[in-house]
Amino acid sequence: MATAAVLSNGNAADWADRYYHVDQILDRPGPRTDPSFLAGEEVKKFLREKSKILVIGAGGLGCEILANLALSGFKDIHVIDMDTIDISNLNRQFLFRPKDVGQPKAIVAAEFIMNRVPGVKVTPYFGKIQDKDDDYYMQFNLVICGLDSVEARRWINATLVNMVDPEEPESLKPLIDGGTEGFKGQARVILPTVTSCYECSLDMLNKPTTFPICTIANTPRLPEHCIEWASVLEWPRVFKDKKMDTDDPEHIGWLYKTALARAKEFKIEGVTWSLTQGVVKNIIPAIASTNAIIAASCCNEAFKIATSSAAYLNNYFMLIGTDGVYSFTFEHQKRDDCPVCGGQALDITISKEWTVERLIEMLVERQDVQVKKPSMATSTKQIYFQAPPQLEALTRPNLEKKVSSLVDDGDYITVTASTLPFDLTLRVQYT
Amino acid sequence: MSAVSESQDIEQATAAIEQATAAIQQPDNKTRRYDRQLRLWAASGQNALEASRILVLSSSATATAVLKNLVLPGIGHFTILDSAVTSPADAGNNFFLAGPSSIGKPRAHEAVPLLRELNDSVEGEAVVKDVRELLKTDEGRAFVSGFSLVIAHNLRKDTLDELSKLLWADHSNPPLIAVRSAGFLAEFFIQYHERCVAQPHTDDNVPSLRIIRPFPALSKWASELDFDKLDPTEHGHVPFVIILVRAVEDWKKTHDGKLPSTTPERKAFKEQIAAMRKKIDEENFDEAEAQVWRIWRDPPVPGAIQSLFSLAPPSDSPNAVFHALLQTLNAFVAAPDGPGCLPLSGALPDMRTDTESYVRLQTVYKDWAAVEKAKFKELLQKGFPDLAPTISDEEIDTFVKNAHHVRVLRGRRWSEWDADKEALASSLTISPRETAAHLGLAALSALLNKAPGKRCRTGTSDHASRGCVADGSTVTVDGLRAEVQQLVGQDIELPEDVDTAIGEIARAPTADLPNTAAFLGGMVAQEAIKMITKQYVPVNGYCVIDMVDMWTGTVGGQ
Ligand SMILES: [Zn+2]
């Protein structure tokens, strides 16, 4: 092919004019470009030959992110995902086909990108982000997250914040995070320890809908109450230790039928297969277009940060597409008492009468903490431990004791939990 | 438990599951595939998508990005109309071309199969023709007008003008989405005469519960309930709706039949509710106090709906059914034997009560909603005897359920706003950065339009390798500034935002950046879905996007 001329500094896959569009940006600065921008060959060389980027998630956002990065000129891309492909992914995860159902997302996505975009290397890892250590994360210039799990995001956020060594500028890895729900979404840039981090904004998340057990057990009114009854109360009663698998259609079928029978008994309408699945799997509506918007803004930030070709987002972009297009760009503020990047303990003021159990309930309820099954200790005493069983039994009597009998006013409590990728320090004061 | 008995348990459990689910049909593959979107627009929206036929002018990176997001959710058919041949530049920035092997081949032909493979149930076709040629013949114009929606990306200004006039000429012609982008800046405009949205999905709150205008069954329940005779459990389970209806009734008896309106009156009213409690911790009373706003804020007709009543329906509107429903709504509110407000939706929020009371209340609401719907249908039949039989029950149902927030948008022709110097200048003061970006892009299209003919042919010239993109070499900051000045008027002082916008455009006048293309692909497809499904509310005006500071905004709406 005559047009596939090799550029002096490029590799064989770069045909002349391959980057005609992107190069218009890289060949000259714009009015809002930082003076440090090195227009021309140098920045192109860095982007296409030196930079290494990690994509976490190869799902709705991940597929889009991989395609955008590859076309933008990133050539060394790594992707991590622990999921396999489900048929319900195909309405948006556009690198997958019906024949791929059951295959690992990371591997199929990586192969697709390498076939479609010549000269781009995508290295997949089919597994959990927690499998990898600091050395692994240290090799990248940038990390982009397209996840639907709060827990995984908290983990990568805490990991990247902890990796920052003030003596080593290279240890600061910008984290770009995207998320969508239906017609809504957000993209943000986190410079660990410099800007607000994921943990700083935890209270912005919607509180998940929960139904009180007494409603489910005694006074169901909505179809959701019947479904919760089937999954939370009936399943363990009938099947004992057998684990419910919400991806198994037979399990969903049983829950549906059980919920339907209860609904009939109470004359409640509206239990359907789809609602049953939605409630037990906590399904969030997801469409290709919103994912495209959010993934594009994440990759655009990655491109701007990697090339310095234009100012990057400072630091939060939020979009609502239900009523026209509404978006809001703002600087989310760092929290001094952020348990990950703040350095200060979280102040809590409670009554002297509060028991340890009450304190635990309060922590579980708090939107800015979001912890399940916390264990607690001071620097000198164990207060309560969820595990191992012997220690739990040993500390269980403390649950009914007053916090004030165990912790002095102004003293610190360290909270740990398996779902919490860091230790949370509380400073307790009494009213 | 021993390992053996545990495994037996699990076997038994599995058998029990199989038995229980034997009779249940799990959803078919199509429902499973579309599950995550059906939760947003339901079967009615999906059917509308599947019936749609979309024409896209160009197979640029942006155009194929838009199509990708329409093929995935399952539109019926798409046609790409594009005479361009794939250039090396196209092969570099477009995910729906097969890399260098597509170079030299018709771009539309290359893109269609790669888009179609995203979804077997979508038809796709490539038409390798120049839209300018098509617009010259009756047959070509009929072809273009025969789609449900037309989307154009970076079409030459004169051609877009001609196309927009053609589609504007007849109300039954498809709407047009005109998309323009250059580097980090972009905008799109949806050309429509009128959009009627029966399911806007903009308000999650349950509409009026008729607490201050109770219908007979509700009123009877509340007034006959002897709170004192209830045992503590029953008392703690009286639905908040009943508590409030009763409280209003009691209040009116001692206040000349008037509702509490002043601040001290409202305070006294809340105290009256508090005094009805038997115990301090009755959650149904907490709820009654929290929902007391439903008494202060319950107009018979919300202001936005009232203003729709005075909207004259366009004479040749394809939305005749919607307008008939709207006028019937007006007649319903005005009917002397009616409730004097919008018909009851029948929806009831969850509340602290026992199952029996809740189901009973739900039935009371549903039954009365059916009564009012019957009344509504009677008025529809009377007012529109010819049209009424053609309107499905489902359509009436959807309309009545959403009567409190249905929307009507009136639009204008593409570029009409650009001819209104006064409006542009005023917008430049109110929303300087958004207007500046729009003016910059309008100036760019004017400048590119002046450049001599485009190059869409295969050939040996250097320019041909850039394919069907306009020649950006004539685009300068000064040239753009002069065009902007001409648009807003010579005597208008241009704010700094204009320099920022045109500086960015002059930097990359013909760049279809992968990320900008993907962003637009999502935005434009989302609007197209809203237009096709008639659910959610489309943009009115120019939606402007700046991917440097990362913001979006809307200017030039009606
Ligand atoms: Zn933080």
From TrEMBL, chain A:
GO CC, alphabetical: cytoplasm; nucleus
Gene Ontology biological process terms, A to Z: protein neddylation
GO molecular function, one term: ATP binding
Annotated catalytic residues: 214
Alphabetical UniProt keywords: ATP-binding, Ligase, Nucleotide-binding, Ubl conjugation pathway
Enzyme superclass (EC): ligase
Catalytic reaction(s) noted: ATP + [NEDD8 protein] + [E1 NEDD8-activating enzyme]-L-cysteine = AMP + diphosphate + [E1 NEDD8-activating enzyme]-S-[NEDD8 protein]-yl-L-cysteine
SMART domains per record: E2_bind (SM01181)
The protein's Enzyme Commission number: 6.2.1.64
Domain E2 binding: 348-431
CDD domains: Uba3_RUB
Pathway: Protein modification; protein neddylation
Superkingdom as given in the UniProt entry: Eukaryota
The protein's role, per its UniProt record: Catalytic subunit of the dimeric E1 enzyme, which activates NEDD8.
Similarity field: Belongs to the ubiquitin-activating E1 family. UBA3 subfamily.
Protein name: NEDD8-activating enzyme E1 catalytic subunit
UniProtKB/TrEMBL annotation, chain B:
Domain THIF-type NAD/FAD binding fold intervals: 34-151
Pathway(s) this gene product operates in, as recorded in its UniProt entry: Protein modification; protein neddylation
Top-level taxon of the source organism: Eukaryota
InterPro entries: APP-BP1, ThiF/MoeB/HesA, ThiF_NAD_FAD-bd, Ubiquitin-activating_enz
Pfam annotation, one family: ThiF
Keywords: Ubl conjugation pathway
Keyword Magnesium attributed: no
Task performed by this protein: Regulatory subunit of the dimeric UBA3-ULA1 E1 enzyme.
Family: Belongs to the ubiquitin-activating E1 family. ULA1 subfamily.
Protein name: NEDD8-activating enzyme E1 regulatory subunit
Source species: Rhodofomes roseus
